[in-house]
Specification:
The complex is a heterodimer of chains A (158) and B (115).
Chain A: E1 13-16, E2 21-27, H1 30-45, H2 55-72, E3 80-88, E4 91-98, H3 124-131, E5 133-140, E6 143-151
Antiparallel strand pairs in A: 1-2, 2-3, 3-4, 4-6, 5-6
Chain B: E1 3-8, E2 11-16, E3 20-21, H1 26-37, E4 43-47, E5 53-54, H2 56-68, E6 74-78, H3 82-90, E7 98-100, H4 103-106, H5 108-114
Parallel strand pairs in B: 2-4, 3-5, 4-6, 6-7
Antiparallel strand pairs in B: 1-2
Classes of the chains: A alpha+beta (158), B alpha/beta (115).
InterPro entries (chain A): Anti-sigma-factor_SerPK, HATPase_C_sf, HATPase_dom
Keywords (chain A): Kinase, Serine/threonine-protein kinase, Transferase
Pfam family, one (chain A): HATPase_c_2
Chain lengths: 158, 115
């Protein structure tokens, strides 16, 4: 299966390796993040087993990618994001790389719920920690490397 | 950002006509909501039945809409799809909003009045 990026937005490069793996490169903007997420959904939807869903993966990846757009690169000069995905054994593993600013203190932000009464933001890392496993982060040679896995099955009672 | 709004009994029923409220459209969503709700009825019911994906930017925008309404206005939600409901539940924002299962429940008082 090939995943054709919108030709009007040539920033999104989508390279399919096999059915279980996917490599994407795109600019750190809201529009390209949306295209990348739709591309991931298209790539993996057909291979899902019974009861499996991409909803958790999409939520987690959206938050990770939005954080890069908002915090790693200046809004006026978005840089590239490289994303590698591998699905195996009911899980989706992701490695996300960018060359923007490092995380504060070179470590993963804590995932606490925002303390404000009616918060308009600050939910992102909470959702990532709540839904993803195996989170690791390092800043190496000017590159941020974030790895995580997400389940393809929603085990939480509705 | 497509929003369909109609006055329904004592309330403004606003339906989001798109599948995603994400960081690409969160600001536009907020602005459009301000336009349709301003000067409207005191009760605003936001129908998210067509929204299958809401990220934290979208969630923040929904909270922002609640805060930008006039002092006498209040925002309620209805028809959350499972993924959207999960984001509200995980972040405990389901405690901040009145959430109706469906439009029938949201406008139950109004239909009783008509009968």
């Amino acid at each position: 299966m090939t995943c054709i990026a919108d030709p009007a937005r040539p920033g999104l490069a989508c390279e399919t390796e096999t059915g279980s793996s996917l490599k994407l490169g795109f600019w750190a903007t809201g529009t390209e993040v949306r295209l990348a997420l739709l591309c991931i959904r298209r790539h993996y939807a057909a291979g899902l087993g019974p009861g499996e869903t991409l909803d958790i993966a999409e939520t987690v990846l959206a938050e990770v990618l939005n954080n890069i757009c908002e915090h790693a690169y200046p809004a006026a000069a978005p840089g590239r994001i490289d994303l590698r995905l591998l699905s195996c054994c009911g899980r989706l593993g992701a490695e996300v790389r960018d060359t923007g600013r490092a995380m504060p203190g070179n470590r993963l932000p804590a995932g606490q719920l925002p303390q404000a009464d009616r918060p308009e933001g600050g939910f992102g890392w909470f959702l990532i920690h709540a839904l993803a496993d195996g989170l690791s982060y390092r800043h190496y040679a000017g590159t941020n490397i974030l790895r995580l896995t997400v389940p393809l099955r929603d085990t939480e009672a509705a | 950002m497509e929003l369909l709004s109609e006055i329904r009994a004592d309330a403004l029923h606003v339906t989001v006509g798109e599948a995603r409220i994400d960081s690409a459209v969160a600001i536009r969503f907020k602005e459009r909501m301000r336009e349709v709700a301003i000067g409207g009825p005191s009760r605003v019911v936001l129908d998210l039945g067509q929204v299958t994906f809401l990220d934290s930017s979208g969630l923040g925008a929904v909270v922002a809409v609640m805060k930008l309404l006039a002092p006498g206005q209040r925002l309620e939600l209805c028809c959350l799809t499972p993924t959207v409901a999960k984001v509200f539940r995980l972040t405990r924002m389901d405690r901040v909003f009145t959430i109706h299962d469906d439009a029938g429940a949201a406008f139950a008082v109004a239909s009783d009045c008509r009968e």
